[in-house]
Design a protein that fits this description.
Blueprint lengths: L3 E3 L9 E3 L2 E4 L5 E2 L7 E5 L3 E11 L1 E13 L3 E5 L6 E4 L1 E3 L18 E3 L5 E5 L6 E6 L7 E12 L2 E2 L13 E5 L2 E3 L5 E3 L3 E7 L5 H12 L30 E5 L5 E11 L10 E13 L9 E3 L3 E6 L7 H20 L3 H11 L1 E4 L5 H4 L9 E6 L6
Helix pairs in contact: 2-3
Length: 388
């Protein structure tokens, strides 16, 4: 630990300034006994540490002056009642765990643990491998959580999707600059990094474990990871293009600790995903997890800046009409629960304003035999409807 430094008196007019004895370590931690309650702030990038000063003039006020130490990279700055300001390194779950942690097993161990509200980073690869599962400390089976995406950093190289009808055509290398992907002859698409697979461990029923064993018996090393690609258990969403930075996914934990998993990040992904892929990228995804409040979460619920969406996955043998009915009914129940009205009363609003979109085209599996036969429909409503 570094040498202790004493805060020096500074005149501050008529305010009664209370200074604290503080110190910082060689790792740039700064500790002080104030304030007497907990607050927390997080940032990514270059972050300055602050010395908190407590001023008393009729009521408590807070002022801050920077100290000398700065550092780069994702970080968390927090303070609580008996310490104060302390920098913590953000946990990273490396992509190497995709090929080293609980590989070829029926059911996994937790890769690590995070606290509710803690910022952490999950690294993904370009091949869509599942990284996790991560324990969310204090969360029990049956509780509803919200996973907030704070940032997505894409990692090259980048290439186009392949033609599902003429796979021999292959892919095309892409250049990334100015937040766009450039194709040959200067065609381009605007980058929109999104997470394609975000979920929690399913309940380990005999049916679920049998599916994991079946994957292993066919020579697949995926085992339990295959379960995160079958959303009928309502434990994950399937490949929708709306989970970008600033969005959130509400899920119900199926096991104690939730077991958060992440995979399949896209730099660009069209709605419907006819080619069963987009611009697949490796990425570092920054997340936080909290308890969800205020929403009925029967199916995975996506929340963006301007929309609320329910992602519904019908049985594998269902047709599009059945998927539409499931999505519509799920949104009607969500509106009813949010507004405190009956399903029948909610029906008028949903019938008028709901939008239905396919996450993955149902016809894709006919062209890709190894692809899951299931698909997901999303029912969406503008968020400002709920502010009326």
């Amino acid at each position: 630990m570094g040498e202790a430094k004493r805060a020096l008196p500074v005149p501050f007019g008529q305010f009664d300034i209370m200074f604290s004895l503080c110190y910082y370590t060689d790792e740039a931690d700064l500790v002080t006994p104030f304030p007497p309650f907990r607050r927390e702030t997080r940032s990514q990038g270059r972050v300055s540490l602050y010395l908190a000063l407590m001023a008393r003039y009729g009521s408590l006020c807070w002022f801050a002056v920077p100290v000398r130490r700065e550092y780069d990279g994702p970080c968390a700055v927090s303070w609580d009642g008996d310490s104060a300001i302390r920098r913590r390194a953000v946990q990273r779950f490396a992509r190497s765990a995709i090929h080293s942690h609980s590989v070829g097993v029926e059911w996994p161990e937790f890769l690590g643990a995070v606290q509710l509200g803690e910022m952490f980073v999950v690294e993904t690869d370009r091949d869509g491998g599942v990284n996790g599962p991560i324990e969310i400390a204090g969360v029990s089976a049956g509780e509803t959580i919200v996973v907030r995406i704070k940032g997505i950093e894409m990692i090259g190289p980048f290439e186009s999707a392949a033609d599902p009808f003429h796979p021999e055509a292959g892919t095309v290398e892409l250049e990334y600059r100015d937040e766009c992907f450039y194709f040959p002859r200067n065609f381009r698409v605007q980058a929109n990094p999104t997470v394609g697979n975000l979920g929690v461990l399913p309940k380990p029923s005999e049916e679920v474990l049998s599916a994991s064993r079946d994957a292993l018996s066919h020579g697949e090393r995926l085992g339990w990871r295959r379960l995160l690609r079958t959303p009928q258990g309502r434990h994950c969403h399937q490949d929708c293009p709306w989970l970008s930075a600033g969005s959130a996914l509400h899920l119900q934990a199926q096991v104690d600790g939730a077991g958060l998993c992440l995979a399949d990040v896209h730099g660009y992904r069209p709605s419907g995903q006819l080619a069963y892929s987009g611009i697949e990228v490796a990425a570092d995804v920054t997340l936080t997890v909290e308890r969800s409040q205020g929403w009925l979460v029967e199916w995975p619920l996506i929340e963006t800046a301007d929309k609320v969406m329910v992602a519904v996955s019908p049985p594998a043998d269902a047709d599009r009409a059945e998927a539409d009915r499931l999505a519509y009914a799920a949104m009607r129940r969500l509106v009813a629960a949010r507004a405190g009205i009956s399903d029948e009363q909610a029906n008028a609003l949903v019938a008028t304003a709901v939008e239905l979109q396919a996450c993955s085209a149902p016809s894709t599996a006919a062209h890709l035999p190894d692809a899951p036969a299931s698909f997901a429909m999303v029912a969406a409503l503008p968020k400002d409807i709920f502010r009326a």
